[in-house]
Write a structure and sequence with these properties.
4 helices
């Protein structure tokens, strides 16, 4: 669907520079920009929902490191300072 927009000289210049830098036409830069903006303001997407797949990504499933932190710390300190 064709859409017309009016840009100020400064914004049009920035669009042209981005187009050259990315080596795509201006329409593609506008589409990508609009897509990114709409994804940010999409209702119902909380910060938690956006990062949900990243939480605990470095841990093995089923391990709760926070509940055993104190005992693990004591063990490490005892081993370090054991005489």
């Amino acid at each position: 669907m064709p859409v017309s927009i009016r840009l100020g000289a400064q914004l049009e210049d920035r669009l042209a520079k981005a187009s050259r830098k990315l080596r795509v036409n201006k329409t593609e830069v506008i589409k990508r920009s609009l897509e990114a903006y709409l994804n940010q303001i999409e209702p119902g997407r909380t910060p938690y929902a956006l990062g949900e797949g990243l939480f605990a990504a470095d841990q093995s499933p089923g391990r709760d490191f926070s509940s055993s932190f104190k005992s693990r710390l004591k063990r490490k300190l005892r081993a370090k300072h054991h005489r």
